[in-house]
Specification:
This protein is an alpha+beta fold. The chain has helices spanning about 40-50, 65-80, and strands spanning about 10-15, 20-25, 30-35, 60-65. The chain has a single domain (about 10-80), classed as Double Stranded RNA Binding Domain (2-Layer Sandwich).
Length: about 80
């Protein structure tokens, strides 16, 4: 949840073969690659905090995901819920 009066960094997440790739364009150099989707937000948060020399809890991330990934995840959830 985004809190008022805190910086919000927009980020984009996509797939590159077996890797999840995320970047925050407003923070130069803030791009990560991870193997598992549940690592994306915490790793990007830690890296942004490192690059800006701020506390990792002092900002929010507004993440967008490639639409084809979201659609594939919905189909996967539909199949596994049967």
């Amino acid at each position: 949840m985004v809190q008022p009066d805190r910086p919000v960094y927009s980020a984009h997440c996509s797939r590159d073969q077996r890797w999840w790739v995320a970047d925050a364009p407003a923070v130069p150099g803030a791009e990560i690659r991870v193997r598992h989707h549940d690592e994306v937000e915490p790793r990007l948060r830690n890296f942004i905090a490192f690059l800006l020399d701020v506390d990792r809890d002092s900002f929010d991330i507004a993440m967008t995901v490639d639409p084809w990934i979201a659609a594939a995840n919905e189909r996967l959830l539909d199949v596994t819920s049967r």
